[in-house]
Amino acid sequence: MIKVYVNDETSLLKAVVLGTAESFGGTPKLEEAYDPKTREHILNDSFPLEADLRSELTEFETVLKKYGVTVYRPQIIENCNQVFSRDIGFVIEDKFIIPNILKHRRKEIDGIDYIVDQIDPDHLLEVPDEVRIEGGDVMPWKDHIFVGYSKSPDFEKYVVARTNEKGVQFLKESFPAKKVMAFELKKSDTDPRDNALHLDCCFQPIGRDSAIIYKGGFKNPDDYEFLVEFFGRQNLIEITREEMYFMNSNVFSIAPDVIVSEKGFTRLNGILRERGFIVEEINFAEISKMEGLLRCATLPLLRTF
Ligand SMILES: NC(=[NH2+])NCCC[C@H](N)C(=O)O
């Protein structure tokens, strides 16, 4: 049996699924791209190579293991990009949620069937057909759940809109004791600098009471203001449009004081160290070309208090 429990973004990590790039299918055709950054790199002939993606993920695995984390990897599906495990399932409290994700990516879920099969069926929640929700948009934070989503007609309009209003409703009904705070995200299928693909592309809680945030990722200024109020301005690290493009909000917490970050995030890593965090820097810039980073590549199964 695999035990699942996650109630926030930063408590000590015990078990995680880490994505794989093995047999990831190489450079997609332009019409197969489902995010604008991937599009950009296909057009510029700079899409990453499997060997580089694999070595970045191995570096990540090494750090996780150094901290005693049990690391599961998806079963390999031939010619399928399985780097971003975050979106294909998620845990809130002691429930593992099996979501409905973008149709282009649905088969990725088969890669973690062997893990789901080891979870007590009483702890599995399968979402209804009309609900669309991806783990990158969902963040349990103690008595709150933060969710990124798109209302109609944005949801129907953009391939990069991944969580709908029914997704938010599903969380409210499934976790009645939690305060579900839903934020509409800014979307663009063509410009990665104007696209918050998931909530974790413009915001992430860190430490015990802090967060990284990019104001421009929120469609409604009030939602950004709510988060400023909630965390307190002094506890926020505000990032620029360019830093959001390189995915600075998508670092990953192994513990309240330990954050895995990208080597190139010099400003962010400096601030994190000043604020007392241990920053484990790794290479992840090739993975970032596919519009995801460290949080996106992980699916935490167990965090303890
Ligand atoms: N949680 C995340 N932000 N995941 C990023 C996923 C990126 C992937 N290219 C997609 O479009 O689905």
TrEMBL record:
PANTHER family: ARGININE DEIMINASE. One of its GO terms (biological process) is L-arginine deiminase pathway. It catalyses: L-arginine + H2O = L-citrulline + NH4(+). Transmembrane segments: none annotated. GO terms for molecular function: arginine deiminase activity. Its EC number is 3.5.3.6. Gene3D superfamilies: L-arginine/glycine Amidinotransferase, Chain A. Pathway: Amino-acid degradation; L-arginine degradation via ADI pathway; carbamoyl phosphate from L-arginine: step 1/2. This is arginine deiminase.
